[in-house]
Design brief:
Blueprint: E1 7-8, H1 54-73, H2 81-90, H3 93-108, H4 112-133, H5 136-149, H6 155-171, H7 177-207, E2 210-212, H8 223-235, E3 242-244, H9 261-272, H10 284-300, H11 306-311, H12 319-352, H13 360-375, H14 379-382, H15 388-404, E4 407-410, E5 422-427, E6 433-442, E7 450-457, E8 468-475, H16 488-505, H17 521-531, H18 538-544, H19 556-565, H20 571-588, H21 601-612, H22 629-632, H23 642-660, H24 665-674, H25 684-692, H26 700-705
Parallel strand pairs: 6-8
Antiparallel strand pairs: 1-7, 2-3, 4-5, 5-6, 7-8
Length: 708
């Protein structure tokens, strides 16, 4: 998903500590970032771009943006839609292009030079944003057009005017001078704190790696997992023969297989304590500062708290609506979770004795054994059928072809920022160019954890720009000569992120600001979560779930067992999400005076979960406060609920597809026309209703879909 909307977390190997000098390239003719690309679609020419080019290019792009804003302000003609609103939307095209390329690398290939450039450029970008947000003459022109022409305009013109005006108002354009100055200070400070977060948490996560000396301590792991642990140890300096890296979520996948209980405990504790101050890393001072500053932002804008301010511009609109939604889910979930925990503990006691007490680091292990006994299924049995290349070509692309008529042609002539990447040209059913799609699926030391979508360019008819979209994941790359095999979760993640990609690829909007995924965050996850549904549709599944050696389809009996197992003990997945969501909301419901000190931050999370009925040692939050990147480093403050909110929308839409024919082109065309192509050009709930025929979403469908 996009950089600010992603399925996030933090897992990056520590970068070299030496400072690399950046050489400014003053001559624009020598800087490929300052020249229009000659590649198809205007794709970035990574064969020419050097790391030292980014800083001078960004500085020049900032200068150009300033000049373009100045031209709008100094225009002697009265303000019109064309010379003010459209001119503003078209300003900064160079900055859009260069920053999109640069921040792709910040997330996915953050070398020491890129990290140093980020430190230098973020304050300058924040200064520019402040200058524009509080540019009174600019806002006066925008307001003139808004007051005079809002009711005269139609379609995208009206929506662009509305969004532009609202953006300035929400950023503080109506504040007095003193308030504006304070808001500028807050913006700069938050940017600095988030940059510090972006350095601290990956370093902490890397530091949390668990080193293992003896192969026998890794009993239970498959040969492929053992090879991966050995490979990770090699890439991390080989302090021991094997390394278990910590991924972004609280629970760690290998806990389902490790027989060694003490090692399971060490891995789990390394995860939850990665940056909570129990070691040399402590993110809580950053957390409480960001929370306090956000609360003050909201108060300056006249809101009680940041959640109230943030939610105003979403489908949920108010904190009360979010809490009503969550409390209904919690009430239905709680008895299921208690029964699930009891069943796992009793299962474990059959082999470990009646006094055995289930701990959170035991849950995945005994749940996997229980699933094997009841359903006779394990990840290792199905992974040979989930080769990453087959999932992409014969699954993700196959479904998009069936539903939307898209064709995919690999382009080996377009350079990438890393050798692991692949590039595909996307054509419509008539063979007309539609987009470029890059995929970057394997983890590496310079990439943060998680999975996301973004683009080197957004679609815009006004700019005559077709979309250039990419997906990034963190799958383990098999040692040379071995296939890279996926778990079912990793399969659905690929479908999920491609759902975001489709939202960008199929966009058909006039204006850059409104196109693609530029929608409320409690709508943006809907296309991605909906696209997951295609992974298990029989015709799609049978096309990609083929044995990596023989090419044979997964046997029907194994397929039936696997699909039945998808919702096995599904209360856990819902519970960890609910806990993370409620922790996020609790932090952002605080007034600035009530934000706790850093030493009380962990206690605050505990109390918040206890109060809402989600303090369950067996089902901790998917992300603890201290490493919750969505909230403190990304764009999901008071917004993590949107994953559950949009899952409701996605399930409702998947049910409509099933009724009309999930792979029928007519159904896909209607969804494209009424939702995916429209970006943020209309009312989002109306888009949902136009396609589904439902006046409002049916939340009960979520629990049914999860088997609860």
């Amino acid at each position: 998903m996009i950089k600010k909307l992603m399925t996030l977390g933090m897992m990056a190997v520590m970068l070299a500590t030496g400072v690399t000098q950046l050489t400014a390239c003053k001559d624009a003719s020598n800087n490929p970032l300052l020249q229009e690309s000659t590649l198809p679609y205007g794709a970035p020419d990574f064969s020419k771009i050097q790391e030292k080019d980014y800083l001078p290019a960004l500085e020049e792009a900032i200068k150009q943006k300033r000049d373009e804003i100045k031209q709008i302000v100094e225009n002697k003609d009265s303000a019109t839609f064309e010379n003010t609103i459209l001119a503003y939307d078209e300003s900064g095209k160079l900055l859009d292009r260069v920053s999109r390329i640069f921040f792709a690398l910040v997330e996915a290939d953050k070398t020491p030079v890129i990290a140093e450039t980020e430190k230098k450029i973020l304050p300058k970008l924040t200064d520019l944003e402040n200058e524009i947000a509080f540019n009174k003459p600019l806002f006066e022109r925008i307001k003139q057009v808004y007051d005079r022409d809002l009711e005269k305009l139609q379609g995208e013109d009206k929506k662009l005017l509305e969004e532009t005006y609202k953006e300035f108002v929400r950023n503080g354009a109506l504040l007095n001078e003193q308030q504006m100055e304070r808001m500028k200070e807050i913006n700069l400070k938050i940017a600095d704190l988030q940059q510090q977060w972006g350095e601290l948490v990956p370093d902490a996560t890397n530091n949390a790696v668990v080193w293992v000396d003896k192969k026998e301590d890794l009993a239970g792991l498959s040969e492929a997992d053992l090879a991966q642990c050995a490979k990770d140890a090699e890439s991390l300096g080989k302090k021991a023969p094997y390394a278990i890296v910590i991924v972004n979520t609280t629970q760690q996948p290998l806990l389902a297989s490790l027989d060694n209980r003490d090692l399971r405990r060490k891995v789990y504790e390394a995860s939850i304590n990665r940056c909570d101050g129990t070691n040399k890393f402590n993110s809580y001072p950053l957390v409480v500062q960001i929370a306090k500053l956000r609360a003050e932002q909201a108060e300056l804008m006249g809101y009680k708290n940041y959640a109230e301010y943030s939610l105003e511009n979403t489908m949920a609109q108010k904190p009360e609506n979010v809490y009503n939604f969550l409390k209904d889910l919690i009430a239905a979930y709680t008895p299921k979770a208690e029964a699930e925990t009891k069943a796992i503990e009793e299962f474990a006691q059959k082999t470990e004795g009646p006094d055995f007490k289930l701990e959170p680091y035991d849950r995945f292990y005994y749940s996997a054994k229980m699933k094997k006994e009841i359903l006779n299924i394990s990840d290792e049995e199905v992974k040979p059928y989930f080769n990453v290349d087959s999932v992409l070509i014969n699954g993700v692309f196959f479904a998009a072809n069936k539903v939307y008529g898209l064709q995919f042609k690999e382009r080996t002539d377009i350079p990438t920022y890393h050798a692991d990447m692949r590039v595909f040209e996307v054509l419509d059913k008539e063979g007309k160019p539609k987009a470029l799609f890059y995929c970057d699926y394997f983890r590496r030391p310079t990439k943060r954890g998680g999975a996301w979508m973004d683009g080197f360019a957004k679609q815009s008819r006004q700019r005559n720009q077709l979309p250039i979209i990419y997906n990034v994941c963190n799958n383990a790359k098999a040692p040379e000569g071995q296939p890279s095999l996926l778990t079912w979760d990793e399969v659905t993640t690929m479908f999920h992120e491609f759902g975001h990609a489709l939202h960008g690829i199929l966009s058909d909007c006039n204006y850059y600001t409104l196109s693609g995924t530029s929608v409320a965050r409690d709508f943006v996850e809907m296309p991605s979560q909906f696209n997951e549904s295609f992974a298990s549709i029989p015709e799609v599944f049978d096309n990609y779930a083929r044995h990596y050696k023989t090419g044979e389809q997964m046997p029907a009996e194994l397929k039936e067992r696997m699909l039945k197992s998808i919702n096995f003990q599904s209360a856990y997945a819902l519970g960890e999400n609910l806990a993370a969501t409620c922790a996020d909301m609790a932090w952002h419901m605080l007034a600035s005076k009530d934000v706790p000190t850093a030493d009380k931050a962990a206690e605050f999370e505990t109390n918040a979960l206890k109060e809402i009925g989600l303090l369950n040692p067996q089902i901790p939050p998917r992300y603890r406060t201290s490493y919750f990147n969505h909230v403190w480093g990304g764009g999901y403050a008071a917004g993590y609920y949107s994953y559950l909110w949009t899952e409701v929308l996605a399930v409702n839409i998947a049910n409509i597809f099933a009724q009309r024919g999930a792979l029928k082109p007519e159904t896909g065309q209607a969804f494209c026309d009424q939702v995916l192509s429209r970006g943020n050009t209309g009312d989002l709930m109306k888009m949902f209703s136009d396609f589904t025929g439902m006046a409002e979403p049916d939340a009960s469908a979520l629990l049914k879909a999860r088997g609860l």
